[in-house]
Design a protein that fits this description.
The structure holds three protein chains of three kinds. By secondary structure, chain A is mainly α. By secondary structure, chain B is α+β, with helices and mostly antiparallel strands. Chain B has a 15-stranded antiparallel β-sheet that branches. Chain B has a two-stranded antiparallel ribbon with strand order 1-19. Chain C is α/β, with parallel strands linked by helices. Chain C has twelve helices and 13 strands. In chain C, the strands form three sheets. A six-stranded mixed β-sheet of chain C has the order 5-6-7-3-8-9, with helices on both faces. Classes of the chains: A mainly alpha, B alpha+beta, C alpha/beta. At the A-B interface, α2, α4 and α8 of A face α3, β20, α4 and α8 of B.
């Protein structure tokens, strides 16, 4: 390595790391804001999440014999679809730069790789937090209006959806965080592999393959372990509000599993970004 | 020298020249494809991941420490997997003969799922009646006339065949007389409500039926299907037939009636419990009550299949490979946009439809070959390994197996062409890959998860590209076997080739739009 | 020398880098000084872009150091205020407008958005700045790249092949622009694989071949060196002229039936000698080598005599 890592800049009058980070943040935000179809992608994510949530809520009926449906989870089914768009969004935020060569401009402007990646992660987190909250709230609201019409009434022991209830609030907040973590997973993978198609293939593969494989695994123990490490199945256990003891993994622990996946992806991406010629 | 002066074929070019032009374009595209190392490696990766995921996914150790190769489904005369478990009160019949018996009642008991509690409940396909069966060996040819819990009197034979007779349940007030006539290899079933007026229920020939057969009374019942809050469950159930004294004519043995649980246990679709056991008792008037569990029917998928694999289970890696194939198919065209290579391509071959056609053929052909090879490698290895660990493997005919292998290749080919078309339309690899993966895999996942009601799941697998996975389905569906025939248990709403046709339709649509769009757009 | 290197704004010291089996940089060493345009020339694949990427911290060298204002680029906090660079004119996302591209860059350096409009004017982007950059011609892309390089008002500007794709007007503009930057006291490093592009632009030249410096010299020195004091003489009496000039210590080479090439005497002395001895002649002209010739000579050497250390080749 030609660059001794110990060398600090001659002048610190520029305002320290916080100042650097602030500027990088602002730059990343401008980049994201002006990238054209990024806003459309986020809108699509919200729309798809709500639409699929509505569709599911409309389709599932609770017959008089009773049903074991978790209404909160039902209303939030759209997250399984919306996450794909969020993943694309996160991947494009990085691979778009690699595809055009702009990453070199970015790294020339902000040579500290950690700062770049952290700033990107922070912006993505903020943006997905906002759109995810909108999507989740709209889904719950739609469920609140649609589900009672399908038999999910007090007569069948279903209260109307309300964030005032602990488990519902947990599912709502958790679903938003789930989307954020999916975005960070996408960011990490895209930083590591650079190419959009590959990155999206990997992210969607990670998300979708586990549940597909779990279906055919015949051994209950194996099945449970697979569900415990699957980023999607484990992560979405945060949406459960009933029969918690039957889940392969608890709600927060499940979200933690996804967080570990995202952190691992970011770590690998960050290391490669450091090591690799741009 | 003169040869070089030969004028170009003037337009309209001959068919042959066009064909030659297409071959050149095809050759060019093939060269483009195979010289990008990443793509070749990716295709190899698709092959490998399909095999590895498929084998790992089905690698679980067999439950209950079952010995290697100890388990296999009994096979019916047609080679199909069958359940052949029932309580049989039988005598030997040599040559021709007739058995007539009034059936006083058919009742059932079922476990409720809570420990040891049973309720009176007759399953729709609980059976009690008379049967002529070549031997006590499972899977041997038979013909039977029976009353059922919910489908009236039936004549069934050789496991898959089912003919309806008079409807209604037998009772003390109105018993059902059942009669089975054997003449050589021909068997005819009759039913009557008074013992004097007979209706023919069905007639069949069982070619090669042994001269000496076992015949008598039987009762059997598949498990009770219960829709509970947690989903569909199956609980142990038995059926009891109460018969009056049987009337015999022909070459019957003189010995006493003997009771046998055919198959030793109740098979995959039935089960006994501590409270529900099989057996028979002779009543005062020479009649019998026979109680049994199990079924005499083909094995189908769903919970009644038992702990086993169907052929398509080994191909679960198809999803992994498919994702790779989709990515490669997309980048095959979007890569040209990004690097401006498309301008060179179009300069070399100004016919844009031809370029796209050649690309589709290369991507689709490559995907087909890899998919076919992946399936052809995975299936035999997976089957052998699962059998070796003591799993049941649902048997299929060679023709079905070939259909699944070729179908997997075609599935990949269609997905690759779809990816190519969408890639050409969107020109953005990331969005295109996500769209195609999501449109093929997501509906499948949503439908298979069991969250959605079956009607919605089936609708999803009819109209989305995920319909194509139907080509891999080998599990059969029979009206006379109660199971969960839903996407969540591996049943597609469309027949195999129709499902694949839906996916191909999407691919053709995307490809067509891409050609139109590419022609009309500056590159 | 030590005095000058203290003022150096880009220092490249002994860079070495491999791409697989190929040695891309092989002890690359040079310095760029303020107030002049330094041309960075060499054949394709000589290592120009790689060197620039190492300077920017985009690529890591296996050995050696690249310093900007005395420190490695990657330790700079607001690097665009120290060094503005144009590497790849198309290194932006096509869906973004030129102005927005500059805007995010400005934010990353804490540069005010007002400066964005200034550099848009300076680079001559004008109203095009509000269009999507993806639709730009190569010339407009170069201008956008220049604007980005100027954003932080840096004392050092580094441009990789800025003449590529420019029309004659654009080339004229670029030359004036580079000269102006140097006149403002900035250090300007401009790479090119065509010496002719730099002939009227560069004050100083760093010529490289096969990953090392072949010559680090001023343009006039290089020309003098390449011309080698040769004088072409046209005379109706070549044997006589040869005898006279030879007697005065010059080397004479017949180059045609009535032309000879004289080395070792300045042209005015040749004229005086010939006149004094009554040798008829119709034309005496000092041979002036073009920069292109000098460059061809140098880079051919670099290819043929790879073993010579850079220090000996450079003057």
């Amino acid at each position: 390595m030609s660059l001794p890592s110990g060398v600090r800049p001659a002048s610190t009058a520029d305002g320290g790391w916080v100042g650097d980070f602030g500027r990088a943040l602002r730059a990343e935000w401008t980049k994201l804001r002006t990238a054209g179809d990024m806003g459309r992608l986020l809108l699509l994510a919200v729309a798809l999440t709500v639409a699929v949530g509505c569709g599911t809520a409309k389709a599932v009926k609770c017959p008089d014999v009773g049903c074991g449906q978790d209404v909160v989870r039902l209303a939030l089914t759209g997250v399984t679809v919306g996450q794909a768009v969020i993943a694309v969004f996160a991947v494009l935020a990085v691979s778009g730069e690699y595809g055009t060569g702009m990453i070199r401009t970015t790294l020339a402007a902000v040579p500290n790789r950690t700062t770049v990646l952290t700033a990107k992660a922070a912006i993505l987190t903020t943006v997905v937090l906002a759109s995810g909250t909108a999507a989740v709230l709209a889904s719950l609201l739609a469920g609140r209006y649609i589900l009672p019409g399908n038999g999910f009434t007090e007569a069948h022991d279903y209260a109307s959806l309300s964030l005032a209830e602990g488990p519902t609030l947990r599912a709502a907040v958790g679903s938003v965080l789930y989307l954020v973590l999916i975005a960070l997973l996408g960011l990490g993978v895209a930083t590591a592999v650079r190419e959009a198609a590959t990155a999206i293939g990997i992210v969607l593969g990670l998300l979708y393959l586990f549940p597909v494989v779990t279906r055919v695994v015949n051994d209950p123990e194996w099945q449970r372990h697979l569900q415990q490490i699957s980023p999607m199945t484990a992560g979405l256990s945060i949406q459960a509000t009933i029969h918690l003891d039957e889940l392969p993994i608890g709600p927060w622990a499940g979200l933690g599993v996804l967080a570990v996946w995202a952190a691992a992806a970011l770590l690998v991406g960050g290391l490669l970004l450091h090591r690799r010629d741009a | 020298m003169t040869a070089t002066l030969t004028p170009h074929p003037s337009p309209p070019a001959t068919r042959r020249a066009e064909w030659g032009g297409f071959l050149r374009t095809l050759h060019a595209e093939w060269t483009k494809f195979r010289t990008v190392r990443g793509w070749v490696l990716a295709m190899a990766g698709a092959l490998l991941s399909t095999i590895v995921v498929g084998l790992l996914g089905t690698a679980a150790p067999a439950p209950g420490g079952r010995g290697a190769d100890s388990a296999s489904y009994p096979r019916g005369p047609g080679g199909e997997a069958v359940n052949d478990s029932f309580y049989f009160v039988h005598k030997t019949l040599t040559g021709d003969g007739t058995l007539t018996v009034p059936l006083r009642s058919l009742t059932g008991m079922a476990d409720t799922g809570t420990t040891g509690k049973t309720v009176q409940s007759t399953q729709p396909w609980a059976k009690a009646g008379i049967i002529v069966k070549e031997s006590l060996t499972q899977g041997s040819p038979y013909a039977a006339v029976m009353a059922t819990g919910g489908h009236g009197v039936r004549m069934q034979y050789d496991y898959t065949r089912d003919a309806a007779g008079p409807s209604g349940m037998p009772s003390e007030e109105s018993p059902r007389w059942l009669r089975l006539v054997r003449a050589g290899d021909s068997l005819t079933g009759f039913a009557s409500t008074d013992g004097s007026h007979w209706t023919e229920v069905g007639h069949t020939k069982l070619p090669g039926l042994a001269r000496t057969v076992q015949a008598g009374l039987f009762a059997t019942s598949p498990e009770a299907k219960q829709d509970t809050a947690a989903g569909t469950g199956f609980n142990p159930a038995v059926a009891t037939g109460t018969f009056d004294r049987p009337v015999l004519s022909g070459g019957w043995s003189e010995g006493a009636w003997r009771g046998t649980q055919v198959g030793g246990d109740a098979g995959t679709s039935g089960s006994y419990s501590n409270a529900l056991k099989g057996g028979f008792a002779q009543t005062d008037g020479g009649g019998f009550t026979v109680t049994g569990a199990g079924d005499i029917a083909p094995v189908v998928g769903g919970p009644v299949m038992g702990v086993g694999f169907s052929v398509e289970n080994f191909l679960v890696g198809t999803f992994a490979g498919l994702i790779v194939v989709i990515a490669v198919g997309t980048v095959f065209i979007t890569g040209e946009y990004r690097r401006g290579l498309l301008r060179t391509t179009m300069a070399a071959t100004p016919l844009r439809g031809r370029v796209l056609g050649a690309k589709a053929l290369v991507a689709g052909g490559g995907a087909f070959a890899i998919g076919l090879v992946a399936a052809a490698i995975t299936l035999p290895i997976g089957e052998r390994s699962a059998r070796g660990r003591g799993f049941l493997v649902f048997p299929v005919t060679s023709a079905t197996e070939v259909r699944v292998m070729v179908g997997t290749g075609l599935l990949w080919a269609a997905a690759a062409v779809l990816a190519l078309g969408v890639g050409a339309l969107l020109r953005r690899s990331g969005t295109a890959v996500a769209l195609v993966i999501a449109s093929i895999v997501l509906p499948f996942l949503l439908a298979a998860s069991g969250v959605l009601p079956p009607s919605v799941s089936e609708w999803l697998l009819r109209v989305t590209p995920a319909a194509g996975f139907a080509i891999q389905q080998t599990l059969p569906q029979y009206a006379q076997v109660l199971s969960v025939y839903e996407p969540s248990t591996g049943y597609y709403p469309l027949p195999p080739w129709a499902g694949l046709a839906v996916l191909c339709g999407y691919a053709a649509l995307a490809f067509g739009l891409a050609v139109v769009r590419l022609r009309g757009r500056d590159v | 020398m030590s005095d000058e290197s203290a003022k150096a704004t880009i220092e490249v010291i002994g860079l070495r880098k491999r791409f697989g089996p190929r040695l891309a940089l092989d002890g690359m060493t040079f310095a760029v000084r303020p107030g002049r345009v330094t041309g960075f020339v060499g054949p394709n694949g000589a290592g120009k872009s790689t060197t620039m990427r190492v300077i920017l911290g985009l690529d890591a060298a296996e050995e050696g150091r690249a310093l900007v204002g005395g420190v490695p680029y990657r330790t700079l906090r607001r690097p665009l205020r120290h060094l503005g660079a144009l590497l790849d004119a198309s290194a932006f996302q096509p869906s973004r407008t030129a102005r927005n591209h500059l805007l995010w860059l400005a934010y990353s350096q804490g540069v005010s958005p007002r400066r964005v409009d200034e550099v848009i004017e300076q680079a001559g982007l004008g109203t095009a700045a509000r269009r999507k950059a993806g639709g730009f011609s190569l010339g407009m892309r170069q201008r956008l790249g220049i604007a980005a390089a100027l954003l932080g008002d840096p004392p050092v500007v580094m441009l990789d092949e800025p003449f590529n794709g420019l029309d004659p007007d654009g080339i004229m503009w670029m030359r004036g622009f580079l000269a102006e930057l140097a006149r403002q006291g900035r250090a300007v490093l401009v790479s090119s694989h065509l010496m002719s592009e730099l002939e009227d632009t560069a004050d100083h030249l760093v010529v490289i071949g096969r990953g090392r410096v072949v010559a680090d010299t001023s343009v006039s020195e290089l020309l003098a060196e390449a011309s080698g004091g040769r004088v072409a003489l046209r005379t109706s009496a070549p044997p006589l002229a040869t005898r006279v000039l030879h007697g005065a210590g010059a080397t004479v080479l017949a180059t045609g039936p009535d032309t000879v090439e004289v080395t070792g005497l300045p042209d005015e002395e040749i004229v005086a000698l010939l006149a004094r001895n009554g040798v008829p002649f119709s034309q005496v002209s000092a041979h002036r080598a073009t920069l292109e010739e000098a460059y061809m000579e140098l880079t051919r050497d670099a290819v043929e005599y790879r073993g010579i250390p850079a220090g000996e080749a450079a003057r």
